[in-house]
Amino acid sequence: MQYRQLGNSGLILSQLTIGAMLFGEGNYYGLQYTINQDTADTLIAKAMDMGINSFDTAHGYNNGVSEVMLGKALGANRHEALITSKVFFRSNQTPFRGGLSAKNLIESTEESLRRLGTDYLDMLLLHNDDHFTPADEILRGLENVIQRGLVRYTGVSNFSAWKTATLAQRQKDLHYAPFVASQMHYSLLNREVEQDFIPMSKYHGLGMMVWSPLSSGFLTGKYTRENPQPTDGRLNTFDLGLFDREKGYDVVEIVQSIARKHSSTATAVSIAWLLTRPAVSSIIVGISKLSQLDDNLAGLSLTLDSEDLERLDTATALPMRYPHSFAHIKDPFVSVAQRF
């Protein structure tokens, strides 16, 4: 296992993070929960044996069941692990138990600690933007849990670049502890974070933890034009619409071609490509069965050559949109002189 620095912090975490979103059993908003406690215990133990030290959950995953199960699975090994949880989505129907008000943020964090059976979180992320609560109130809530020792580091998830930058600047203005992380969707099928979010992240020192690196399993190759709804496909019942499927089929063909060249798998190629991206600190892998852990781990040892990277980058490149298309026009003298 290799490790990376998380943003502009001293925190070192494994290149893979185990996501506990599917911990539990049953159906929740179309998402199939498939991991019972025994399986979770086995998965976490195996991951730690392989050197994985980072684990991700959220207040709203399966009404808090995910946090309970992750806490039990870590057990006495809790202090050998980095736990990330998130707050925004509600875990019950109490009106104020949702969003990022100072009240909900503080009390939800306290509830997460009780469910996880720990006295602190290594990382607390804002799970989604709250267009209702003032920015300074959100930050006041975060600073409260940090100053009380309940949380070590903070960051955002699924935020726009402008809102993240606004919050980060207000933290500086108020002399609050700064964000060090983001958790964003990033894959060969969706590179939108490259346009604004990643440049902003570099400026403010945020490391990225990537969720859904396989685009909900689409990049494994299980979805085809001939069989767009395979029997065990998560996208059949839980599709966030994050990529163009028609283009996706063409990209998967390239990924599979590269996989054959290396006697590897489409999963490993997709993971290996993400690890070449400089903004990525760790990749969150949501496991629904133990065999998938080995498939994801294979991506850590796969080295893609320059031809592979060119094929993948060309096939998935973002169209340049305004104002980037205008800003791309550079002064010829400055372009030649520039060194930094």
Description:
The structure is a single chain. The chain is α/β, with parallel strands linked by helices and 340 residues long. The chain has one domain (3-337): NADP-dependent oxidoreductase domain (TIM Barrel, Alpha-Beta Barrel). Helix content is 38%, strand content 17%. The protein has twelve helices and twelve strands. It has helices spanning 37-49, 65-74, 102-116, 135-147, 161-174, 197-204, 245-261, 266-275, 291-297, 306-316, 324-327, 332-337; strands spanning 3-5, 12-14, 16-19, 24-28, 31-35, 54-56, 82-87, 121-126, 151-157, 181-185, 207-211, 280-286. Strands 3-6-7-8-9-10-11-12 form an eight-stranded parallel barrel, surrounded by five helices. The chain is globular, with a radius of gyration of 20 Å.
* Largest sheet geometry: 8 strands, parallel, barrel
Number of domains: 1
Name the overall outline.
globular
Task: Please provide the ordered H/E string of secondary-structure elements.
Answer: EEEEEHEHEHEHEHEHEHHEHHHH
Strand fraction:
15-25%
User: What is the number of strand segments?
Assistant: 12
Q: Can you list the strand order of the major beta sheet?
A: 3-6-7-8-9-10-11-12
Q: What average pLDDT do the residues reach? A: 92
Low-confidence region ranges:
none
Indicate the percent of residues in helices: 25-40%
Distance between the termini: 33 Å
